[in-house]
Amino acid sequence: MSDTLASAEPGGPPQTAEPLFHVTGEHHPQNGTLLGFWVYLMSDCLIFACLFATYGVLGRNYAGGPTGAELFDLPLVAANTSLLLLSSITYGFAMLEMQRRRLGGVQAWLAVTGLLGLGFLSLEMYEFAHLIAEGAGPGRSAFLSSFFTLVGTHGLHVTFGIVWLVTLMVQLRAHGLIPANRRRLMCLSMFWHFLDLIWVGVFTFVYLMGVLP
Fold first, then answer.
1. CA nearest neighbour of 48 among 211, 209, 210, 194
2. CA–CA separation, 212 and 91 (whole Å)
């Protein structure tokens, strides 16, 4: 609110003093960023829910082409799943180091998390390239179109997560564990664990159920 002062002389023009602003508490809620990020994750959930529903409808439409049982290499996918789940654990170690105010430990575990994420993406790209080389590209059938869309969208999210992780490591190196960086670490933690949860659904619903006759 502002205070307005009238003119000291009767009948004279009103004079306005400099506005005085009174802030009695924190202007922005402390958890506003985390709440907003939760809203974003819920919207991302809706996107993946639509993709899962699409795959559920089209996942058996092979158009005379190969089926999931003929294409999926479960040992490779299991190894890929292990990399992503392990990266979630290493990110947890980074958060523990953040609580202890150990910048070096945070950076080290973030680097390990990023390398595991890159390993996951490398195996996924190898799988895609192998399927396309065998003539099982996204245009071969509705099953493969929905498969590449669902798995590719998740891989794109992991790619963005790695870019965010590298950017955050640069910010940590420049500014340390300031409150803003700690908040960013929390948001990335929620995002990374969310991707792990989505991948568990992909592994179960797409790959494990896909190899069933």
1. 194
2. 34
**92 lies in a domain?**
yes
| Helix (H), strand (E), coil (C) string for 27-91 | CCCCCHHHHHHHHHHHHHHHHHHHHHHHHHHHCCCCCCCCCHHHHCCHHHHHHHHHHHHHHHHHH
- Is residue 139 within 8 Å of 65, Cβ to Cβ? no
Q: What is the pTM of this model?
A: 0.84
**What digits encode the pLDDT tens for the residues 118-176?**
999 999 999 999 999 999 999 999 999 999 999 999 999 999 999 999 999 999 999 99
> In which domain, by residue range, is 200 found?
74-208
Question: Among positive and negative, which fits the CA dihedral 170, 174, 176, 177?
Answer: negative
Q: What is the dihedral of CA 172, 177, 180, 186, to 10 degrees?
A: 90
What's the number of domains the chain is made of?
A: 1
